[in-house]
Amino acid sequence: MKRFIMQKFILLSMLLILSGCASDPLTQTLKKYGYAPIMPPVATMNIGDIYDTKGLRDPYVLMKDKLSDYIQQIMETLKDDASIPDTSSEQLFNIIAEADIIGQAKPELSVYKIAKFKVHFGGVVQYIISKAKFEDEIYPKILETYPNRNFDKKYVIVALLKVSSLEYEFYDSDGNKVTISQGSEIEKVLKAKLGSEWSASQNNTLSVSSPRYIGYRMAQLNEISYETVKGIQTPKVEMIDIPVEESKKVLK
Fold first, then answer.
1. Share of the chain above pLDDT 90, in %
2. pLDDT averaged over the chain?
3. Signal peptide span per the entry (predicted)?
4. How far apart are the C-alpha atoms of 95 and 27, rounded to whole Å?
5. What are 108-128's pLDDT values in tens digits?
6. What is the pTM of this model?
7. Residues 6 or more apart from 141 whose CB is under 8 A from it?
């Protein structure tokens, strides 16, 4: 009997450990659909934005600057709001550095004895451009608009993930809820760390109240040949996908 009780205790302990280490739903969603997290989440970003390096630190050409109306029409045709359901977790997850988005604030949260969280997000939309559409349609438009720029070996946004709502509930190590009130010191600390768009809600949680892009995929541009169009040499390009883990390394 004692042996049976001990085995049950060990099994329960293992389940608790595994559940605490499991990825939260937001991290799982980003991983499942192949997105690197955007930190901090942003209100504006477009398919076709081009960067000097992997990650989002060195913008080279942003579509909103000269091609805003054009890319908005393209984005509308790429919009997919049906494939990822709204998610509301009732399970508590440990705040670890590997937790996408909220993991960035682990040191700050630990100061306030916050060790666990729940996450809720909804209104998920994906925007994904095919290689053929970018190479044959969007890239020539970019070249026409920026004739003196060199895009070879630059990095381009080829997919985006947006949410309409994102909310975190916080708990201490014993599972007691920690309230985040408006104007509190912890709210100010988290806004400074995660971005000014975050704020305490009426439910004493941390949330963003307007749509934000939270995930992206990149590809590298590789100019492979030239074709003559009306007597003008025009470079052709192919996109080489960048593994998500390479993009995530830039965040560290």
1. 75
2. 89
3. 1-22
4. 12
5. 999 999 999 999 999 999 999
6. 0.86
7. 67, 70
Query: What residues are paired with 221 via a beta bridge?
Result: 239
- For residues 68 and 74, is the Cβ–Cβ distance under 8 A? no
Inter-CA distances, 212 with 37, 39, 52, 85, 191, Å: 12, 11, 23, 16, 15
Residues 49 and 61: their CA atoms lie apart, in Å, by: 6
Neighbours of 107 (CB within 10 A): 10
Phi, psi of 65 (to 5 degrees): -70, -45
pLDDT of residue 9: 42
Neighbours of 8 (CB within 10 A): 10
Identify the CA nearest to 217 among candidates 162, 161, 166, 164. 161
Rounded CA-CA distance 225/165 in Å is 44
HEC secondary structure over the chain: CHHHHHHHHHHHHHHHHHHHHCCCHHHHHHHHCCCEEEEEEECCCCCCCEECCCCCCCEEECHHHHCHHHHHHHHHHHEECCCCCCEECCCCEECCCCCCCHHHHHHHHHHCCCCEEEEEEECCEEEECCHHHHHHHHHHHHHHHCCCCCCCCCEEEEEEEEECEEEEEEECCCCCEECCCCCCHHHHHHHHHHCCCEEECCCCCEEECCCEEEEEEEEEEEEEEEEEECCEEEEEEEEEECCHHHHHHCCC
What would the two tokens of residue 175 be?
Answer: 């599972």
φ, ψ of residue 75 to 5 degrees: the values are: -60, -40
Written as six digits, the tokens of 185 are 């010191």
Give the tokens for residue 249: 């390394």
Asked if 149 and 37 count as a contact pair (C-beta separation under 8 A), the reply is: no
Phi, psi of 3 (to 5 degrees): -65, -40
